């Protein structure tokens, strides 16, 4: 069920079984915008059904926070235009060439190109691996970019993170909301641990924003204090 964050922002909670992330909807006066495309066509359809139940239109834009499958495999099924960073699109074009059989998935896992957790969740989400469709975004963001939805603005900015080098952050100044996706998590495609320098840089980047609500990919939104306390606690563990 769709939940309300502010008068302008709503979200569909994630689902742990198949690692579905939280999907967000920003309702402007003239246009609307979704954050992340989910992990399948079925995920998108569930999101749109909930929007329709609330009387909301489908999004004009869908912004992708990073390339990982759970945030992107629904891109081919979304309404409107998709937006991602240049680095995200580079990775998605690479993933477009992957073959989706259990054997190929095992091979990518063994080579380190993909990871076991993702493969396990993909097999739960997809009864038929042939249903997987990977596409790049239609619009690429190279630098800080603002979108006026009417009465509310979304500022997009690509920036490195501890989770993935292609992270795209989204700031909503009228609501003092900062969307970070999975950016403050460890890099599971690396050694599964935090890199101290990347974490230090990420913390400094996040703290420069004037936000009161911190939106993450796989859990409920946090307060500024909760977010900064978490980042500081992870840094202390590395010292």
UniProtKB/TrEMBL annotation:
SMART domains: Lactamase_B. SUPFAM superfamilies: Metallo-hydrolase/oxidoreductase. Residues 20-218 form the Metallo-beta-lactamase domain. InterPro entries: Metallo-B-lactamas, NDM-1-like, RibonucZ/Hydroxyglut_hydro. It holds the Pfam family Lactamase_B. This is MBL fold metallo-hydrolase.
